[in-house]
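#lab-general

N.A. 3:47 PM
ok so I finally got the sequence cleaned up, no stray characters, all 145 residues accounted for. can someone with queue access submit it? mine expired

B.Y. 3:52 PM
send it over

N.A. 3:53 PM
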Amino acid sequence: MTTLRFDPFRGFEQMLRKINEVAGEIERGVTVETGGYNPRIDIFEDDANVFIVAEIAGIPKDKVNVKLTEDRILMISGTKERCESEKDKTYLRSERSFGEFSRSFVLPEHLDLSAVKANNHDGVLEITIAKKQPEPPKEIEIAIS
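B.Y. 4:20 PM
back already:
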């Protein structure tokens, strides 16, 4: 007769590790959106930089704020307002969105936060963040006795 050993916790530790990995990935990519208007944003990279591009057509430069916190959170906020001349009109159709917006992104560790540039051109806000160059691995000479 064969005896089978049953361990109800077998694989439990591995499963917890996987859950923590997934939670960590979700946390790193968290974005927060608030307001009635949310500009569309693309995030991409090349070998030297990470680029964040936001469509902010119709929003003057002085109505857009870009801030970076010590916790590596990049915040883009602002207000898209309807023109005064448009407010008293009777609309047959209105598809454009207006209002305050706020978008936040957690930035990865490998970026140089002292090298951030923002440019607003033709209704497109482009934020460029340089990547840190990886430090070469340290080598320690060990004397042979």
